[in-house]
From TrEMBL, chain A:
Annotated source species: Pseudoalteromonas luteoviolacea S4054
Taxonomic lineage of the native organism: Bacteria, Pseudomonadati, Pseudomonadota, Gammaproteobacteria, Alteromonadales
GO annotation, cellular component aspect: outer membrane-bounded periplasmic space; plasma membrane
Name of the protein in its database record: Thiol:disulfide interchange protein DsbE
Keyword Signal: no
NCBIfam families membership: dsbE (TIGR00385)
Membrane topology: Single-pass membrane protein
Length: 189, 148
């Protein structure tokens, strides 16, 4: 009896190893790469995208649950999710944009014009829907780096005290919203 | 090849950047090879052209210039990008199995070999009863042969 079990042991280990590796094959490595969960919003002092005289800090965002959506007009997936985000805004979700412009970086664009950018953003938002209460302009990508942003679009769910509850990489659609954001929001209530 | 390529990139990067001393240059070089680009599937930040890799390189440079140690820079990055950003996995409850499993497998395998050899080396005692049983079996076999 004992020997039989011992004989099956290698097979058992093999099966367990298969399950372990299979999971690794279909898991999403991007899900793991976030260090800011459970921490408070890093402090920042950045201008508004549409009005350089207006500045935003992390303190302006306290007191309300909100989404911070990292985006740019150069990013096709960001444009694609504007429609769904606008629907969420209509349902009463507060969404703040964190705008970053790739072309501002001399290594990634050849010219940069603030007025042209504002016009482009305006056109884009009137065409695809405007989900944002306002947009914070992060030209140097300093807040993006502090948040652990690796690209766009990415979205953070932040509670009233400024604690980051979720960090989602990729677009938000109905499936993501229902499976990821709704449960987190329900937990808040 | 990949190693050569990344080394070349680092050298190119070094030409662009200036350091106060060789130690800082070395720290910067090691960090850009050891930190993983969070946007790419598997590239270090010295090797990648992604915008985030460039941002991380610049940040590493600033932190090194400010006199931060290698570990301080790594901690800074892990704080933002999670453990994913560093190629050397830390020992945490979740990763302890990765560290311990190879040791367990080697110990078990070695133990198994020793166990088998010891068993094979044991001399089987031969008794009178065994002699009798052998004779019986030979007689039985011979009887069968004759019957055919």
């Amino acid at each position: 009896m004992n020997r039989k079990i011992l004989g099956f042991l290698p097979f058992l280990i093999f099966v367990l190893l298969c399950v372990f590796l299979y999971q690794g094959l279909f898991g999403n490595p991007r899900e793991l790469q976030t260090g800011r969960l459970g921490q408070t919003m890093p402090s920042f002092n950045l201008p508004d995208l549409m009005d350089e005289n207006k500045r935003w800090t992390e303190k302006d965002l306290l007191g309300e649950v909100y989404l911070m959506n990292v985006w740019g007009t150069w990013c096709p997936t960001c444009i694609a999710e504007l429609g769904y985000l606008t629907k969420l805004r209509e349902q009463g979700v507060k969404i703040v944009g964190l705008y970053y412009e790739q072309a501002y970086d001399p290594d990634f664009g050849d010219h940069f014009d603030m007025n042209a950018l504002r016009k482009e953003v305006d056109t884009m938002l009137s065409r695809a829907g405007n989900p944002y209460q306002f947009n914070i302009l992060d030209l140097e990508r300093s807040l993006a780096l502090d948040l652990g942003v690796s690209g766009a679009p990415e979205t953070f769910l932040v509670d009233k005290k400024g604690t980051i509850l979720l960090h989602h990489t990729g677009d938000i659609n109905q499936r993501v919203w229902r499976s990821k954001f709704l449960p987190a929001l329900e937990e808040l209530q | 090849m990949a190693l050569l390529l990344s080394a070349a990139v680092v050298n190119a990067a070094e030409d662009e950047y200036e350091f106060k001393n060789a130690e800082q240059a070395q720290t910067f070089k090691e960090l850009t090879l050891e930190l993983r680009c969070p946007k790419c599937q598997n590239q270090n930040i010295a090797d990648s052209d992604a915008i985030v890799a460039k941002d991380l390189r610049d940040k590493v440079l600033t932190l090194v210039h400010e006199g931060n140690s290698k570990q301080e820079v790594i901690d800074y990055m892990i704080d933002r990008y999670g453990y994913f950003v560093h190629y050397q996995p830390p020992v945490t409850p979740a990763t302890i199995i990765l560290w311990v499993l190879p040791v367990i497998i080697v110990v078990l395998g070695f133990g198994f070999i020793v166990f088998r050899q010891k068993k094979a080396a044991i001399k089987q005692p031969w008794s009178a009863a065994d002699d009798k049983r052998l004779e019986q079996l030979i007689a039985q076999y011979q009887r069968k042969e004759r019957q055919q």
